[in-house]
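Following up on my earlier message about N-(aminocarbonyl)-beta-alanine. Here are the inputs again, as you asked, copied directly from the submission form:
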Amino acid sequence: MSLLIKNGHVVTATDSYVADIFCENGKIAAIGHDLAAPPAEEVVDATGQYIFPGFIDPHVHIYLPFMGTYAKDTYDTASRAALVGGTTTLIEMCCPSRDEDPVEGLDLWLGKAEGLSACDFSFHLAVTRFDETTEAKLRLIVDRGVASFKVFLAYKDFFGLQDTELFKTLALAKELGVIVTAHCENETLVTELQQQLLAEGKTGPEWHEPSRPVEVEAEGVHHLMAFAEATGAHVYVVHTSCEPAVRAAEAARARGVNVWIETVIPYLTLDASYAEQPDFEGAKYVMSPPIRDARHQPFLWNSLRSRSISTVATDHAPFDFIDQKEMGKDDFTQIPNGLPSIEDRVNLLYTYGVKRGKIDLHTFVDAASTQAAKLFGLFPRKGTIALGSDADLVVYDPTWRGEIAAATHHMATDYNPHEGWKLEGRPSLVTVRGKVQVRDGEFVGQMGHGEFLKRECTH
Ligand code: URP
Ligand code: ZN
Ligand code: ZN
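Thanks, got it. Here's what our run produced:
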């Protein structure tokens, strides 16, 4: 299988130049001008278009039993949607419940993806219990190429870990060189505030944010930082939504804690007023931590520009409005938490970040691809355009104009939280290991082409 992409404007996290790229046997085999490569099976003219490394979404949920229901996507819908939007690698949160064996959990999650996914994939293993059997199981899981853990400091009695378990998980991670991703909110405060609001008759989706205010998130980050400092573990704070949470991580970083910060596309684009819409529309915007007051957005964009925030993921957690979000019609605490955005992350970040002058092209590529590859043991196989790297490429047309709509998206949900948002660019061609999977906004590839990526412990 060979492909020659000619005359594209190649942009990586560090470089920018016009070149031809020749792909053979799934790898980037040559980069240069007027390439005298062997005749390719396909030649694509990318004049006037960017060529980006395939984008990586390091925080998605596809198979997710959660809050009395299941997330709506399967790998069939989610991997197509990801690819159409330029994302060629997914790292899914594998979230067995407290009562589930983690090795069986990994097998279950793997079984949902293998042979079906159209893009490459890997997992963060959520440690939801730590008993006398856990250490041996986690060592086994790491040996199988799952080089990152996930901990929840929220979702009491469901995914949430107690402090002793948190300590043991971080200590083991430190020994193994495994990075620990963490959802940071103080679960006790959440429970108390939820009960208080419900007792006052405040049952609508607009009360979700006040039940988990920024202090709740900042306290969670601070809590994790103390444990990271005590154990020396490397940690990655997922879906950071607000200034106090970022500041708590930065303060720890200044003390020498090895911490990286993720934000997600809904926090950069949406604000708390969306959850205040009448007729229960606000339920479409219920996720945790909550979407914040708009004043946090300039801070998040600036932190991205300064690279204090390393990555922009999605936290894609898709639930239908009808029947699923509606489970919380009379009680906001019963609304399944999560938003779909796996398809739109890259285009939104490009249009509302790069085109609006908030970040440059290199920061865009770094935050949406390269940093995830580096942090999670995939670099330089993924996350860059270099000789020998996987030929995961996104030819991006900056002249395309369109808008987001649930009627045309590839995700399984019955709504899109960015309905009607204008886009100024989209992928015109997307390859996974040299195979063309998307052309002009449509999936044209092969389901099941995606591979499970074994990762090394790099921390
Ligand atoms: O609201 C969210 N974020 N739902 C998905 C689960 C999680 O906390 O990441
Ligand atoms: Zn979370
Ligand atoms: Zn998540």
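One observation from looking it over: The pocket of zinc ion (ligand 2) is lined by residues 183, 238-239 (CB under 6 Å). Hope that helps, and feel free to reply on this thread.
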